[in-house]
């Protein structure tokens, strides 16, 4: 093979006659002389295995023993561990350079190549060598525990209601989490508080709802938690305790093998605050606009019955309960899932109220279709045992049946009883519908769950014993007709008090009419019924028409408490981050504004009803995260959850995207992407379309998989500064050779020298320095003027390049192409 008539063997030789240069003797093309050749050295590189990105690494290129002039990527044992090789392949690996680098010939079919133009190491490996992986899910060997740091997340709401002929009612409520991370450990403290102030009294309460610490145990696919906790069980009911728990963690499994989270559906008559709690602990609090709402981002670790409270701006309050029972308990063949806990029950407000207990449960995948599960819970005076079986019915869904027997020794009697449960789940893909959960539980009169037993101890006898529970959730899409249906029903009966039932139906029909596209009509109905008490009914009907590019107009009728209310709403967005809604009804008007900020999410709502009341509400959700690398304020919805700090090395106002969020770096070049899903592969990138004019991104994307509660940390290479043409001169009057590279003090490429020393420089800072390299070594430095030209193309700067004094004891740095940055990301 030849180029320009010059023969080429192992190295590529260039015919410089074809170059339009004044001085053909002053050329440095050594970095291009070998196809794919990378000078020996250590380079920060993204690693791509079979088109799947692994965490960034510093990769060493070393001359192999049989080719002193060549270079080969050194694949270290730490990097090989992230491949997820099957166990039987690990024993076949051979190594060179004293066991530091993998001999790729030990895995036939493996190919490795580096590309400095993209700073990427490409690795191709036959899939037969690798363990199971899934899209957006990484093996535990690739999980990142993050960096040490502290965090503070909050969710606060304030409101003021002024009613005619009565004094104002002011209130403030909030909840949040303080936390610290150290290695794999997560330390957390949850708080909640409320202040209500009116003419007659002032009530206030601020409390720490729990202190706890937890960590992931990837080898066991489990999570260990210590401190104040709630029992998360698939068999027994939930209660608060202080102690330790070791649970199989579904979130560490591939996404298609994880559980489901409950959702809450309802209708707000006015702009309202929705509070979801369990046993006094606030799980979720948010402002919602008038009309239907659907909350779907609850944590999937929630189990048991949740209390939902809707506080309207007119001062009225409605409540109902939602059962969050899980889908049938099935386990993959040959696998065992388990949950263990021990400690002492403790009420949130009354201190410890029970004896030391222990509990354990398991589920064993016996065959491809059958699972066996069971468990026990006991203390000095209470014992309960459960056993059940689950069956995968394939095309007909999944079903499980279990029985639990309890014995409780109270002060004056011993109660024994049994409880039976039947559960069913099915996703009818071919019919575009899903039974999310359907179940029935029947309990004998003398059966007591652990929480009922604890209540009986406090009240000297059984109170509110459960008798039966029916619950079902159904979704159906009629796509051809543009119709969707959601139905939820629950019926709870008791042995010693009135039954309660609730159902909620939501139907939406989407249609087009002439030039109007994507219009809709919706119906929301709910009923809460308790024997011997008046029903709590509600119905909401609305028609929505799109207006303009992003606006919509709705007209609806709401009937609740035997009163009809007619309303009209217009909603639109001011920009990508700010939405608003204005509402007018029979005798009232209202407004709702929602803004997604870099530092917090802000909601504002106001209402006015003639001759009755005026109200104003405000809420903010956000957090602060600090590490040794810096700190940043940010928005946050998941208290104490996983997050990623992105560092643009001091460059402010850089737009960053990640996990569906967008934000900008603060004054110190830091931004935090919150609400990252644990154990999912997460990408963060520079938003190139919205970069400031004086900023360039040389590395715009990073990926990693974080463990639960981790504070991830990654840098993105960004160059900030002015751009201008320049001519470089050496002290002897000559110019650097054609092809020489220019870097800033962070070793970022800022230009390549052309003929006559001309170069187009980027990232210029007043008074800053740049380094010029050729022939594999740094030769001279350039000091930029204190005042840079505003128009960098009108005239070229004339810059003198001062020679660098070589260090005789140091080997030359590989600076010709892609010299590694001095900033290193923490190991994964």
From TrEMBL:
Amino-acid biosynthesis is among the record's keywords: no
Any Gene Ontology biological process: pilus assembly
InterPro entries: Fimb_usher (IPR000015), Fimbrial_membr_usher_CS (IPR018030), FimD_plug_dom (IPR042186), PapC-like_C (IPR025949), PapC-like_C_sf (IPR043142), PapC_N (IPR025885), PapC_N_sf (IPR037224)
Domain PapC-like C-terminal as annotated: residue spans: 728-783
Pfam hit, one: PapC_N
One term under GO cellular component: cell outer membrane
Transport found in the keyword field: yes
PapC N-terminal domain mapped to chain residues: 13-157
Region (Disordered): 808-828
GO molecular function, one term: fimbrial usher porin activity
Biased composition (Polar residues): 816-828
Membrane topology of the entry: Multi-pass membrane protein
UniProt entry keywords in alphabetical sequence: Cell outer membrane, Fimbrium biogenesis, Membrane, Signal, Transmembrane, Transmembrane beta strand, Transport
Protein location: Cell outer membrane
Main location: membrane
Similarity comment text for this entry: Belongs to the fimbrial export usher family.
Name under which the protein is recorded: Fimbrial assembly protein
């Amino acid at each position: 093979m030849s180029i320009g008539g010059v023969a080429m063997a192992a190295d590529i030789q260039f015919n410089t006659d074809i170059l339009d240069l004044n001085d053909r003797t002053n050329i440095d093309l050594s970095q291009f002389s070998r196809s794919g050749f990378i000078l020996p050295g250590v380079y920060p590189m993204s690693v791509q295995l079979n088109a799947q990105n692994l965490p960034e690494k510093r990769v060493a290129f070393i001359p192999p023993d049989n080719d002193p002039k060549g270079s080969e990527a050194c694949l270290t044992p730490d990097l090989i561990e992230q491949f997820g090789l099957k166990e039987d392949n690990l024993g076949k690996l051979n190594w060179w350079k004293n066991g530091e680098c993998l001999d790729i010939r030990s895995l036939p079919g493996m190919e490795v190549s580096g590309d400095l133009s993209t700073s990427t190491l490409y690795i191709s490996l036959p899939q037969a060598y690798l363990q199971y992986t899934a899209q957006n899910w990484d093996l535990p060997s690739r999980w990142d525990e993050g960096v040490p740091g502290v965090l503070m997340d909050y969710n606060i709401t304030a409101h003021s209601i002024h009613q005619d002929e009565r004094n104002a009612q002011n209130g403030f409520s909030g909840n949040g989490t303080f936390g610290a991370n150290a290695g794999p450990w997560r330390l957390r403290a949850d708080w909640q508080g409320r202040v209500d102030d009116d003419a007659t009294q002032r009530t206030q309460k601020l409390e720490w709802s729990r202190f706890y610490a937890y960590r992931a145990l990837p080898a066991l696919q489990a999570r260990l938690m210590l401190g104040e906790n709630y029992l998360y069980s698939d068999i027994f009911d939930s209660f608060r305790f202080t102690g330790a728990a070791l649970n199989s963690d579904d979130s560490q499994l591939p996404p298609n093998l994880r559980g489901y989270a409950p959702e809450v559906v309802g209708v707000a008559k006015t702009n309202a605050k929705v509070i979801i709690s369990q046993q006094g602990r606030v799980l979720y609090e948010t402002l919602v606009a008038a009309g239907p709402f659907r909350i779907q981002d609850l944590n999937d670790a929630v189990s048991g019955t949740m209390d939902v409270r809707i506080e309207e701006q007119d001062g009225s309050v409605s409540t109902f309960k939602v059962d969050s029972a899980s889908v049938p308990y099935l386990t993959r063949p040959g696998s065992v899932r388990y949950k263990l806990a021990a400690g002492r029950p403790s009420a949130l407000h009354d201190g410890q109220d029970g004896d030391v207990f222990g509990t354990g449960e398991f589920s064993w995948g016996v065959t491809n279709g059958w699972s066996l599960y069971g468990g026990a819970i006991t203390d000095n005076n209470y014992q309960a045992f459960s056993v059940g079986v689950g069956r995968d019915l394939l095309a007909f869904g999944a079903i499980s049946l279990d029985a639990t027997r309890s014995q409780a020794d109270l002060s004056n009697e011993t109660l024994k009883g049994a409880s039976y449960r039947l559960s069913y789940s099915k996703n009818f893909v071919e019919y575009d519908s899903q039974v999310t959960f359907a179940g029935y539980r029947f309990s004998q009169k003398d059966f007591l769950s652990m929480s009922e037993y604890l209540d009986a101890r406090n009240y000297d006898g059984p109170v509110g014993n459960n008798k039966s529970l029916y619950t079902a959730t159904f979704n159906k899409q009629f796509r051809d007709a543009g119709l969707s249906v959601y139905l939820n029903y629950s019926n709870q009966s008791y042995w010693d008090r009135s039954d309660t039932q609730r159902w909620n139906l939501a139907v939406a029909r989407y249609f087009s009419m002439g030039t109007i596209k994507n219009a809709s009509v919706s119906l929301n109905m709910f009923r809460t019924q308790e024997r011997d008490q008046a029903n709590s009914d509600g119905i909401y009907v609305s028609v929505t028409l799109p207006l303009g590019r992003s606006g919509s107009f709705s007209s609806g009728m709401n009937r609740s408490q035997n009163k009809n209310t007619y309303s009209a709403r217009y909603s639109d967005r001011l920009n990508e981050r700010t939405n608003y809604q204005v509402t007018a009804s029979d005798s009232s008007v209202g407004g709702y504004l929602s803004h997604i900020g870099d530092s917090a999410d802000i909601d504002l709502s106001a209402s006015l009803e003639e001759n009755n009341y005026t109200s104003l509400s405000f809420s903010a959700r956000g957090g602060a995260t600090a590490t040794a690398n810096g700190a940043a304020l940010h928005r946050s919805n998941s208290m104490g959850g996983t997050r990623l700090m992105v560092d643009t090395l001091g460059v402010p106002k850089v737009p960053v995207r990640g996990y569906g969020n967008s934000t900008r770096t603060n004054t110190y070049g830091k931004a935090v992407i919150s609400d990252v899903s644990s154990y999912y592969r997460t990408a963060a990138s520079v938003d190139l379309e919205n970069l400031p004019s004086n900023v360039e991104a040389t590395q715009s994307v990073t990926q990693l998989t974080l463990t639960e509660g981790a504070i991830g940390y990654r840098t993105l290479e960004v160059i900030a500064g002015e751009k201008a043409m320049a001519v470089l001169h050496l002290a002897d009057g000559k110019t650097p050779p054609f092809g020489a590279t220019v870097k800033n003090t962070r070793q970022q490429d800022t230009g390549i020298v052309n003929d006559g020393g001309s170069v187009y420089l980027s990232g210029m800072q007043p008074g800053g320095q740049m380094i010029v390299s050729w022939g594999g070594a740094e030769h001279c430095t350039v000091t930029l003027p204190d005042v840079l030209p505003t128009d960098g193309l009108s005239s070229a700067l004339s810059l003198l390049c001062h020679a660098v004094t070589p260090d005789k004891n140091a080997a030359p740095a590989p600076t010709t192409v892609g010299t590694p940055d001095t900033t290193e990301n923490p190991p994964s």
